[in-house]
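Re: Re: token formats

Sure, here are both.
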Amino acid sequence: MRDGSIFVTGANGYVGRNLIRHFTARGRPVIGLVRSEGAAKLICSLGATPVIGDMLTADLASRMAGAESLIHAAANLDHGSGSGALTENRDGTKRVMAAAREAGVLSVVHVSSDSVLQDGNPLRGVTETMPYPARPAGAYSAGKAEAERIALTASDTMRVMVLRPRMVWGRDDGTALPRLAEMVKTGRFAWISGGSYLSSTTHIVNLCHAIDLALERGRTGQVYHINDGPARSFRETVTGLLATQGLTAPEKSVPRGMMRVTAHIGDRLHRLSNGRLNGPLSFQEYATSAVEITLDITKAQRELGYLPVISWEIGLAELRS
């Protein structure tokens, strides 16, 4: 007998924590996969039931038993030059989907990323029909693309939807904004060609809302792009986020071409030194932040009824407070 519960991987991560808040506020039981007792206590305090285990080694099917839905939010977020993000995101997703089948899960939302389309070139208003690039920007892009393929293959036995947000931000952010703030504080931040190119963003509340809609209305085997609506320049986005922390980015800017070459050299250095040495920027990091990336959300609007529920201005005000 299923109780409508939702099983969340990566439950103590940024997306996972907010998914717990979102669904428990709506009366849905949430079971969260975590890797430590400390993380288990955290998600208990948020109203979820923790189960401890690593998605790469644990018996996941027994932990998912009885769950109606799965949200696969766990991921290795490393954008560096190493290969860990490829193997962990691919192999972890393979084990999670196999376990979901065995446990009889009915619906799955796989949380992916615009990174699956990144190859270092601009992505302007891209739709879900755009093919994966022949040469992904790095291990993170390659691993997330492999994870998508694995998730979509599972749609032969389960109802599976894939969501691709871009540049997730907002309350409780322990990833992107802290890194930006640290770079400014340590004098390591510089704009790339002034930062005037456009970038889609996705507030964490909008992402949780879209995941909820996908579970309710999504078509199996489909991919949906999600964002906050009209794009802003990368410079405006980063400036606004830093301002909520009382920080101002420097005016320093470096040419895009120079940074592209630097990123390639950094990846080569990493390979030739067997991972002992790294450049100042990986090509994955370059592809993520140095060129326009804007997503077309027409499909999500049409099929899911998706519209952003929190605006840029309200999200910034929430961060300031």
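Second one below.
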Amino acid sequence: MKRNMRVFFAFSLVILAMLYLISSGFNEETMVYYSTVKELKMKGQDSYGQGFRVSGKVVPGSIEKASGKIEVRFMIEEEGERLSVVYNGILPDTFKEGADVLIEGKYQSDDVFHATNVFTKCASKYEALDENKTD
């Protein structure tokens, strides 16, 4: 009988720990929603401070790197809408003007998206090497 109680107690403890971990992972501060640039701008103040993922193309001529810092400012465009982005970190090697990017972070009250992560999308088209071509 005592053995059954110990097993029941241990099993209950494991279940409670799992429920706690699952429920603590679903709070408002850790949630990240996918949104288009247009949707994010339409939400306006309702979106300030919330976590979002937004994709778009880096607008040519918009990349500004701060000297002596790792801060980068740029704009992305999707469906004719533009979004200003600030990122403090090391950018991927494939980050460049016109690149498809996915940014993750928070939209702030200054109408600037403060990115915590910047991902570049890989090219989906690879061309075979032409062996007959000479340089």
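The first strand starts at residue 32 and ends at 34. The beta strands are 32-34, 51-58, 64-65, 71-78, 81-88, 100-107, 112-120.
- S.
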